[in-house]
């Protein structure tokens, strides 16, 4: 063979090799409604880039769909059985109602499940998983360290029982000009959050399960005990005056940042009233975290007082031609390494409880993650308040705060609404 022929043969082999490599290149299509958000974009970029490093033959095609029409677009894809390999979903009905379109992940992800919180919201009736949660959501009391110190209190030792909670609020009231707790009850929802926090600290697992199953009357002794504590808080003047005119995401946050209150009941993940924004306003190290207090039982017996729901999660579509790769992508997305990026970038609380907190600078974030590992209780009480009951409770909660409604009349009215809903369902 001449030199010219050898060069031609080598060129042909190189071309064929290039064509073969190109033919083996795969594309994994990922749909979401969050990756265009500047705060959380670094997280999605990390997952994409890290996955492509580990799989050089795979290209991730990340498509950020408009949030307001996401489920309409996803519905069209489901009907046509084409579109993404991986799709982002909200927990609860938004994912469970579309379960048939997604692969049951239970067997493929058994190795990572023990480290994840928030799975309940993505769990099918048969125990399988529609998706794996990336984030979790819940509520805690955030402490303004300055107010605590002015009241002679130690923010590193938050109240654990109702008696300790009373002592803290009495100290704040007598030694400072701040309120003990600020609510943003402009739309009536923060009263429901407070009710859930008190109930979470007071109820046994059996009572809690009964409420979640919609089998607990609003006029039951267990519910009356919760509202008696709420009334005590109102009558003792622990709550910020004018709460019904405040937004939980702006007014209440600014009151907290201005050291006008000792506590605010805020969310734990990527929200204006969560730890990241509060620390940004007060300064890192000026915010501490407290669980809802245990009521009529010991904090040790009632340790699991951080209620959580899954936030958002990734599922694998039934029509995907790359299911195994898609599962690997999701496992990377919920890994401790990805979780650390999520915390740092967006202030989101990751589902993985094994995230390395030594790499997180925020003291409040570390506290929340530690509580998530030790003290979580899957499913939030507030998520199981019926739609009609919620509206009535929002209305009457505002009147309770101003003293224009009684506990008995409130509970009787909400129970009438519950019974009406039960009758309609029949």
UniProtKB/TrEMBL annotation:
GO cellular component terms listed in the entry, alphabetical order: periplasmic space
Keyword Signal: yes
Main location: periplasm
Keyword field: Periplasm, Signal
InterPro entries: Bact_solute-bd_prot1, SBP
Region forming the signal peptide: 1-23
SUPFAM superfamilies: Periplasmic binding protein-like II
Record localization: Periplasm
PANTHER family: ARABINOSE-BINDING PROTEIN-RELATED (PTHR43649), DIACETYLCHITOBIOSE BINDING PROTEIN DASA (PTHR43649:SF12)
Similarity comment: Belongs to the bacterial solute-binding protein 1 family.
Name this protein carries in UniProt: Carbohydrate ABC transporter substrate-binding protein
Source organism of the structure: Rhizobium laguerreae
């Amino acid at each position: 063979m001449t030199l010219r022929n050898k060069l031609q043969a080598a060129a042909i082999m190189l071309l064929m090799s290039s064509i073969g490599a190109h033919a083996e290149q795969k594309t994994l299509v990922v749909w979401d409604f969050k990756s265009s958000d500047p705060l959380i974009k670094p997280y999605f970029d990390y997952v994409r880039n890290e996955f492509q490093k580990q799989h050089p033959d795979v290209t991730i095609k990340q498509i950020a769909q408009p949030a307001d029409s996401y489920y309409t677009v996803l519905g069209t894809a489901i009907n046509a059985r084409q579109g993404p390999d991986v799709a982002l979903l909200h927990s609860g009905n938004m994912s469970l109602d579309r379960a048939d379109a997604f692969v049951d992940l239970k067997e493929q992800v058994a190795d990572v499940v023990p480290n994840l919180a928030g799975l309940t919201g993505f769990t099918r009736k048969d125990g399988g998983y529609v998706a794996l949660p990336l984030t979790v959501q819940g509520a805690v009391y955030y402490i303004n360290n300055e107010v605590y110190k002015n009241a002679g209190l130690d923010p590193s030792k938050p109240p654990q029982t109702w008696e300790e909670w009373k002592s803290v609020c009495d100290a704040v009231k007598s030694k400072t000009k701040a309120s003990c707790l600020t609510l943003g009850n402009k739309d009536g929802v923060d009263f429901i959050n407070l009710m859930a926090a008190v109930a979470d600290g007071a109820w046994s697992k059996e009572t809690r399960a009964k409420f979640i199953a919609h089998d607990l009357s609003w006029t039951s002794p267990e519910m009356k005990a919760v509202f008696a504590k709420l009334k005590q808080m109102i009558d003792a003047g622990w709550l910020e005056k004018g709460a019904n005119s405040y937004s939980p995401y702006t007014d209440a946050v600014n009151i907290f940042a201005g050291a006008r209150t000792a506590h605010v009941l805020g969310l734990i993940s990527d929200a204006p009233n969560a730890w990241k924004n509060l620390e940004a306003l007060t300064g890192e190290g000026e915010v501490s975290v407290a669980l809802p207090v245990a009521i009529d039982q010991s904090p040790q017996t009632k340790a699991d007082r951080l209620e959580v729901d899954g936030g958002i999660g990734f599922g694998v579509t039934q029509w995907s031609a790359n299911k195994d790769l898609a599962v690997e992508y999701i496992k990377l997305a919920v890994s401790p390494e990805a979780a650390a990026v999520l915390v740092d970038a967006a202030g989101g609380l990751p589902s993985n409880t094994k995230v390395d907190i030594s790499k997180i600078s925020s003291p409040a974030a570390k506290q929340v993650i530690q509580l998530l590992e030790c003290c979580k209780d899957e499913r939030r009480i507030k998520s199981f308040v019926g739609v009609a009951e919620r509206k009535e409770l929002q209305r009457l909660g505002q009147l309770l705060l101003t003293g224009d409604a009684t506990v008995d009349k409130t509970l009787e009215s909400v129970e009438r609404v519950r019974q009406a809903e039960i009758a309609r369902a029949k």
